[in-house]
Amino acid sequence: MRPEHVRISALEKNNGHKKLLYSQMEIITALQHCEKYRRVRAEEMMLKISLKNKIEETLLSLQHLQKLLPKPVIMPEKSIEIREVIKKEKISLEEEIEIIRRKLSQLRYE
Predict the structure, then answer these.
(1) DSSP structure string for 24-71
(2) Is 46 within the bounds of a domain?
(3) Mean pLDDT for back-to-back runs of 10 residues, the chain (110 residues)
């Protein structure tokens, strides 16, 4: 086979040159975006590490504070008394219905 030569017009040459330049520009723009992404990811990683350190410091401070504060004392007797009072205050369902009816009647007259 013999090589064949094809003549390209000036318009086709200019269009091809433009497309080549646009392609180069898009490649450079994509590289810029990739570089910016790498920088942002590195900054994000540094911020995550910093946040983790701050959280650890805060937890240590809270543990130290818990050691300094007095321990609460819960008296079991009071809780038993409260339960007994609640049991005494329970009323029957009929009495509750009557109380609600009285409240409704008061609201009607107001």
Answers:
(1) HHHHHHHHHHHHHHHHHHHHHHHHHHHHHHHHHHHHHHHHHHHHHSPP
(2) yes
(3) 84 94 96 97 98 97 92 65 60 76 78
